[in-house]
């Protein structure tokens, strides 16, 4: 740095303020200190004013900030205000450094850097003492000790009587500042192929605390520091990186880190005109997994998603599609959903069991982030996947805390946390792609789905589509599957041998030929760009004909429920799902209108899902109640029946505390309900707390 004197540098800043920030400083002076305590300086302005000064500011931010703040105090203000404690905060440094790319030899340490990412964790805002006043208990003299970030510094002796105390900290005479610690994690769209995201911690103070919350996408300008890692009391040779935050900006829009060139655009538009674009795309989703055309088409539509609608009254209807694959083990579910990460521009892949304390939604946690006493708010997968896709494997194993937060997350697309003084609402505008196993390992096709998975019905009903994946031996299908897996593996073998073994007998052409057969029709880079392009540029609206198709489909399904005793077929939830699916289908073609073909594609998928899951297994009729409440109508009637029977038997056996089981079974069999069903319903009723057992083998309705 040019060795300019202090006075000279301070004068430069005053000159800069006069030229560029006269008005801003005026506003600051009016609002200081309650509403505003900082002057925000755009790096570009400073650079335009004096490139050397700007560069010095970046390389030695701490000293330069002092001069800049000193200049602010000396600046001639209109009224008799003083900006005694005002901060200068630099913003808008154009080059951002990658969190994972920070290396000591790049000489970033001690300099001003800018990073972008998502707030993974944020402590609550707490006062931090900057200067502690120690009152001598012997003579009453006050000794002031400045405090820095390390441990709490106490005076060696009293400044009055020179004895070693005892001292009492006088809080009124001490100075405090609000402080907060944030953990910024690389945003998911920057990550390729399942890399684990890295993060950096940022300390912020005073007026910039409490401004951001977990899940916010931010750009942070701050001073990079290193700090020695401590292992308990032992110091380690390894150092950690952290930042002292200077300014934080919340980014509303996705970072435009996906460059779509004109060349890409031409290719995308050309592709969109292919007759079989849907087929080509379906073949490009998890090509190593055989079959599942319908599931893959649905996943494709999920990637494109419907249009998020903003109504004139300010409310919003989600465009994101949620889907669930429930099925037998070893059927490729995990493989399929993890492939999504390769394609979705912003996605998170995780297991329901959760690897972080925040789990799938969000949590207030108390751990060693912060000072060990402090609560912090941590964002889970659905928040980190905001505006993207959250692929969650083993959804049935999710933690109980997540279950209740999940309803809100999926429908309102936000998550509220209220615990230990932390009250926050986090955004989770993502699509959920879940995979789950049936409760008893394998599927029993003759049981309602709600009974077979460990998710509560209210949650199940939030999914736009639910696919059931069964694994039943079928010689034809099995041999084609075997063929496919063998071919995929063979292509992999050839490719590996060619690259590992110089003496390989296979020619490059031979390898290419086999690889060609199993490669995706559309490469995943292009597919990523295609999807991003469509989501940015395509907001289709529904034609009257398409509306007609959806309406007819819906009315038709509903009409099957008009007969008084028939189960209600579908609810309005499915109707919105159909709209979303049809919109997504239009987006695949980059179409501005949702046409009949889109509506038909949507109704077809929806019908086949409903058929597979919504069918009341005992009557064969559609029954959305199975999906919505986990209990079919037949079953509900039966439950009602059993309850009535228990009451009846109970009245009959007045002298007993409850209704004896033998008598219940006997009555039930007269009503056409067999003993197995009775046992099962009794179990159900007891679990729900509708029935209890006052004595051995006796039951009573609550
Ligand atoms: P799940 O999550 O359903 O239990 P996985 O995704 O772990 O099953 O699949 C188990 C293995 O079987 C994987 O290696 C997968 O590639 C293979 N597999 C299962 N079904 C298929 C299929 N239809 N096509 C190709 N491979 C399959
Ligand atoms: Mg699995």
UniProtKB/TrEMBL annotation:
Q: What is its EC number?
A: 3.6.4.12
Which region is the signal sequence? none
State the Gene Ontology BP annotations: DNA replication
SUPFAM superfamilies for the chain: Nucleic acid-binding proteins, P-loop containing nucleoside triphosphate hydrolases
Q: Does the keyword Nucleotide-binding apply?
A: yes
Q: Name one GO molecular function term.
A: hydrolase activity
Q: Give every MCM C-terminal AAA(+) ATPase domain span.
A: 277-485
Under the heading SMART domains, the entry gives: MCM
List the protein's name: DNA helicase
Q: What organism is recorded for this protein?
A: Halobium palmae
